[in-house]
Amino acid sequence: MAHLAHYREAHPLPFVITHWINLVCMVLLIITGFSIHFPFWPEFMGIARGVHVFCGFVLFINCIVRVLMAFFVKSSPTGGTRSQVTDFKTWLPQKDNRHQAGAWIKYYLFLKKDHPLGAKLGVPQKISYLLIPVLIIVMFYTGLCLWNPTMNIGFFAAGTDLVGGLMSMRIIHYFMMYVFICFMFIHLYLANIEGLSPTKLMLFRKEHGGLVYDPDKHVIVGEDDLKH
Amino acid sequence: METEAKVSEFQDLLSSRGVSRRDFMKLCGAIAVAAGLGELAAPRVAQALENSVIGATKGNLYPVIWIEGASCTGCTESFAQVESPDPASVVLELISLNYSETLSAAAGHSMEEAKAQTIEAGDYILIYEGAVLEGWNGQALRVADMPGTAHLEEAAANATAVVALGSCAVNGGWMGAHPNTSGALGVQAYLKKAGIDVPVVNIPGCPANPEWLVSVLVDVVMLGKLPDLNAENKPAGIFDQTIHDNCERRGHFENGEFVYQFGSEEEAKGYCLYPLGCRGPQTKSNCGVTLWNNRRSWCVQAGSPCIGCCEANPNDPGQNWVEVNTPFYKRHRDLRIGDWMVQPGTIALGITGILAAALVVHGFGMKVSGRMDGGADFEKVRKWDEKHPNQSIGQYDAAMKNDDEKEGR
């Protein structure tokens, strides 16, 4: 066993908040989305639609805020250190770690025995996180193509026309919900399969001792048990 | 050229075929009764028939040519149920229906001649019902010894406006559905291809609601203008809102009161038909306001979920309402993968299930390889760093590396 120390500097408070908003909104959007697709729980329908539209806007705004904050909030580029860099550097694949993609994939396929050294996020993780804002924005767009008050606005009507009508748009919106569901499955699995410490840090800011990492030299330089 | 209609000519024509004036008036009486007008209307019918035989007779009425393409004549049948003004008034007082395969009493050569004369005189409306068939070099539909497409081109080129009546005329309708062997498409798309520049008004529906047609005719004939059209050249006032927006069962939708099964207690209460696949929320039309069949009722009032018959993108026969909406009682259409028809939900749940199973299997792998308690031990040196010892990024401190080796890390 070996894991890096989990310090709060990896996930500063603003990002803990946006993460919570993402979590709550996505879960509510999925539950209400299923209900709107087919009213399994009829009495919930009216509430479901209100919550769905509200959470859709909140998720979109939250996404934009989170992306903008990446350019002026600092966070640790990796676990095991309290030093920080501007956040966007930690989730864009960087020159000093993008070559680790193969190592990560091999590790997850059990083709590599030892744990790859990398940044806070592994390379496949970085790429999937980069796609999430794109996914949220496209999802928001397809949602507004289906939402009555906006469906006839040229910008949305043109998209509906392009994909072959409202039925196709509905199906795209529906399929994309499953992309979110699949992402959440993988995300939950990978975040917790090697222990719950990353989740405790991300959600509750609870630090955990472990190995200390030098993000400049890419080497483990010691251990900090945080007096556990 | 002689363009005036002559009753005597018409009588000559009849007598040459062995039809006496008396027989003709009897026929007119029968037609009037069949149309629900009563026998007293026979002279009016007679006058209309006489006037309409020679198409170039213009008089005070606006000439209309009504051509059947690949149609079931359902839109004509629907037109006979128009409420206001009644069909006889429309045909006798609003327009001069110079050619109609279904409604004209005359047939054969004289009808084709009437059409030719009307086209030559110009300033008329062409109502085109049914799909345009391009298949088999246009031979998929032949009328009066000419391909159906030739009839359309000929009649459209000189028209003031073309009304594509019914979803088939708008984009091929159900004839455009897979595999569309007859090459069905809509009037607007065909005329664009043929390079004929004439305003097209699209009135979808299967059949088209007769009140919609009358509203367009009234605009053109009485106000002398086309109605406001949306991006799909459909009258905006009719086709810019969804069925759902104006549905009489909308209150039940808002309350969460739904019909899940035909024959159920909920159905008897008239609850919302959304779970039975109602296409109201995605079908743009004002059926629930206009109503059908003498404005007596409409699908949803009669207990049927909307099946989206007004869905018709004039530029894309593939987006015909049948393909887009079947199976009608499911919330989604079927997707076609080769010959396999599958619901989107099946694909989505299938892939998600496979992913979940793969993660469980992977989890066992993680357990077996002892990675669940913090993961495997870290690699000593990243492979890339090992291969590129002289690169500035990711250089390991030599001393540190030695220390690591000493400590067996």
From TrEMBL, chain A:
Record has GTP-binding as a keyword: no
Residues in Cytochrome b561 bacterial/Ni-hydrogenase domain copies: 11-196
Mode of membrane association: Multi-pass membrane protein
Domain of life: Bacteria
Localization terms from the record: Cell membrane
UniProt record, GO biological process: respiratory electron transport chain
Transmembrane segments: 20-41, 53-73, 127-150, 171-190
Annotated InterPro entries: Cyt_b561_bac/Ni-Hgenase, Di-haem_cyt_TM, Hydrogenase_cytochrome, Ni-dep_Hydgase_cyt-B
Alphabetically ordered keywords of this record: Cell membrane, Electron transport, Heme, Iron, Membrane, Metal-binding, Transmembrane, Transmembrane helix, Transport
Keyword match Transcription: no
GO CC annotations, alphabetized: plasma membrane
GO molecular function terms noted in the UniProt entry: electron transfer activity; heme binding; iron ion binding
Family as reported in the entry's similarity comment: Belongs to the HupC/HyaC/HydC family.
Protein name per its UniProtKB record: Cytochrome B
Organism in which the protein naturally occurs: Enteroscipio rubneri
UniProtKB/TrEMBL annotation, chain B:
Record-linked Gene3D superfamilies: Cytochrome-c3 hydrogenase, C-terminal domain, NADH:ubiquinone oxidoreductase-like, 20kDa subunit
NCBIfam families attached to this UniProt entry: hydA, TAT_signal_seq
Subcellular compartments: Cell envelope
Record's keyword annotation contains Iron: yes
Chain segments annotated as coiled-coil in the UniProt record: none
Alphabetical list of PANTHER family matching this protein: HYDROGENASE SMALL SUBUNIT, NIFE / NIFESE HYDROGENASE SMALL SUBUNIT FAMILY MEMBER
Binding site for [4Fe-4S] cluster 1: 72, 75, 168, 206
Residues noted as binding [3Fe-4S] cluster in the record, renumbered to the chain: 287, 306, 309
Subunit note: Heterodimer of a large and a small subunit.
Protein name: Hydrogenase
SUPFAM superfamilies: HydA/Nqo6-like (SSF56770)
Comp. bias (Basic and acidic residues): 400-409
Domain NADH:ubiquinone oxidoreductase-like 20kDa subunit: from-to ranges: 72-219
